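lol forgot to send this yesterday, sorry. struct tokens for the thing we talked abt
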């Protein structure tokens, strides 16, 4: 267990070479960890704005830089090798929920609460584009593996009722596909390595596979109770990992959508059998099951 943050840890990510683990938090710090020793080897606060909250972050493809979205302070970027710090979109009047580097490392994209997708030159922080098309906040962004397309997800016109999934041409900055009736907010997106499919996670706890370029939904899998927070594809391109409100990490076959395994820290009543126990209301049983207890539904407990 790595201890050091004084509040919510909003994101974690391995460096491309696997030698460092980065974490961002609501305590105004980005931390770099040695995963072998568990030691915090670097700590990067925002010295000018002690109330800055860091959200999702991303490593550059070459592992030399680390970017993190903030509340009202744009995107902070650190040169990992030297510890030097700069930011883009300084005092941008919106929260940046997600950030992503283009595959070639030349562009940086951010998902804004103001409904815009921001694209910056990664070399100097110049804003290249501000993509308009979402009705409300943008909650997720991801580059296609070849860097020619960008997908963004967000909430629909009525908060919580539906979501939006937009695919952009990265060169023309124009939307080329849109699905505006996604069930629930699109809270996470990622691409299959081939670029022929993309996967979305929603506030309804479901994963959806979309065939490109038609943006046709070809598979739906119930994954988590509550919102899906993040989706990651394994380095070999065969597995998909999802995490959600339930605190579990679920592993899936990326191609078939088959659920393979659930990784979860033991809950307070993990594997405790409540089969046949009398005197519990249905609400109490539901609470115990949510905390890890198990019950054989075929047994009459009345």
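and heres what i got for the seq, position by position
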């Amino acid at each position: 267990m790595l201890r050091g943050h004084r509040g919510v840890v909003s994101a974690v990510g391995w460096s491309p070479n696997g030698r460092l683990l980065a974490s961002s938090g609501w305590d105004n710090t980005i931390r770099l960890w040695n995963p072998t020793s568990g030691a915090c080897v670097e700590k990067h606060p925002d010295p000018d704005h002690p109330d800055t909250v860091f959200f999702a972050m991303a490593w550059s493809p070459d592992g030399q830089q680390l970017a993190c979205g903030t509340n009202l302070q744009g995107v902070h970027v650190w040169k990992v090798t030297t510890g030097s710090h700069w930011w883009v979109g300084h005092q941008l009047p919106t929260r940046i929920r997600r950030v992503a580097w283009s595959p070639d490392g030349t562009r940086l994209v951010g998902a804004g609460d103001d409904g815009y997708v921001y694209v910056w030159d990664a070399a100097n922080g110049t804003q290249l584009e501000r993509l308009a098309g979402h009705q409300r906040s943008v909650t997720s962004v991801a580059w296609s593996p070849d860097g020619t397309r960008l997908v963004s997800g967000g909430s629909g016109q009525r908060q919580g009722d539906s979501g939006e999934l937009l695919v952009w041409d990265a060169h023309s900055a124009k939307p080329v596909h849109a699905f505006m009736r996604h069930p629930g907010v699109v809270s996470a997106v990622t691409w299959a390595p081939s670029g022929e499919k993309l996967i979305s996670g929603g506030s309804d706890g479901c994963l959806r596979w979309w065939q490109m370029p038609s943006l046709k939904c070809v598979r739906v899998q119930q994954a988590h109770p509550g919102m899906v927070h993040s989706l990651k594809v394994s380095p070999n391109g065969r597995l998909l990992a999802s995490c959600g409100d339930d605190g579990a990490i679920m592993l899936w076959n990326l191609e078939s959508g088959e659920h393979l395994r659930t990784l979860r820290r033991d809950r307070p009543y993990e594997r405790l059998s409540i089969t046949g126990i009398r005197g519990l209301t249905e609400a109490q049983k539901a609470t115990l099951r949510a905390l890890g207890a198990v019950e054989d539904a075929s047994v009459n407990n009345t």
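The CA atoms of residues 175 and 223 lie 29 Å apart. anyway ping me if u want another try
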